Amino acid sequence: IVEWDTAPLEISSYVTASDSNKTYTVSPSDNLSPSTNYKIRITNDVKDSTSNTSENQYNSVDGFTTLSWLGTQVFNSSDNKGDAGADIEIDSSGNIYLVGTTSGLIGSAKVSNSDGFIIKTNSAGVKLWAKNIGETQFVMGSGPKPRSDIDNSGNLYVVYTPNVQENPSYSGRAQDIWFAKYNSSGTELWSRTEGTGGSNYAAALEYAYDIKANNSGNAYLAIREQNGFCYSQKTSGVLYKVKAD
């Protein structure tokens, strides 16, 4: 995550293997505005000066959160386990909210083996608070990564598509949707898990791709379902509305 200055900035990527942190230099092209925030993602396609990819050379591209304002800050789980940034929001005061997934410890306590997370920083990139989010029955899922939005009161909404172990006696897992509302201090105001559930994994898949909050206290989820909870038949996309309060 980079806030461009008029000159090229250096950003770092945290590497979870034994290699030291690596630094990439980003040179924005002439058509990028220095007054605009841009996103950048380091992937395994990034190559060093000798054409080695970051994955092949450094064994990992697990350096999801780099914040740079004429300097560098790197946030990661304290035990360096499977961290992946997914979405970013900026509130009316310039504070930044980063959401993603982790198998490690971002905040003060883990919730499950496959948590979401929220990191809040001020406009200078200084971390204000961080927390793991989710439910105890979550396990590593293959669905879309968390998405977020902020309403006009500064509340943060997060939607996440984990695998949910609903029945301990059944080895399969339902792909359900979990969404929650947090105030600006990181306090969870409410959370919901929605889905068909049941013991048939193939018939119990829901995927949430985005969440948007309006100024009337409602949140809207963009969902793809198979035998979903809004309709009994398969659908290619459903807009599911929940009351925010």
From TrEMBL:
Pfam families: Big_5. InterPro entries: Cu-Rt/internalin_Ig-like (IPR014755), SbsA_Ig (IPR032812). Residues 13-66 form the SbsA Ig-like domain. This is SbsA Ig-like domain-containing protein. Keywords: Signal. It comes from marine metagenome.
